[in-house]
Write a structure and sequence with these properties.
With 96 residues, this protein is of the alpha+beta class. 35% of the residues lie in helices and 27% in strands. The protein has a four-stranded antiparallel β-sheet with strand order 1-2-4-3. The longest helix has 16 residues, at 27-42.
């Protein structure tokens, strides 16, 4: 994950590179990735990162999205060696 700045607006964005090498071996997996990206691009929720656009560069999918200082939820879970049921419930409640 990289931090970027939109040249015209000055908006801070996150740029994520997803290695598609393994996914390219199975066409249905690539379709699943694009479906998920399309769904996320159309979501509007204050607790879900907005994806602005994406493109393919070599064997990578590059996704440009809102920048979030706190990092990804998966990073929090790894850092804490998992989330408790109470923590998970609190997060799910915020998203729904």
């Amino acid at each position: 994950m990289y931090r970027g700045v939109h040249r015209k607006s000055g908006a801070v964005v996150a740029i994520k590179y997803i290695d598609l090498t393994e996914f390219l071996k199975k066409a249905n997996k690539v379709d699943e990735i694009f479906k998920e990206a399309k769904i996320l691009m159309n979501l509007a929720h204050k607790y879900i990162i907005k994806i602005h656009f994406g493109f393919i560069l070599a064997n990578n999918m590059v996704v440009v999205m809102d920048y979030c200082e706190g990092g990804e939820l998966i990073d929090l879970a790894r850092e804490k060696n998992g989330l408790t049921e109470v923590e998970t419930r609190r997060i799910i409640k915020q998203v729904t």
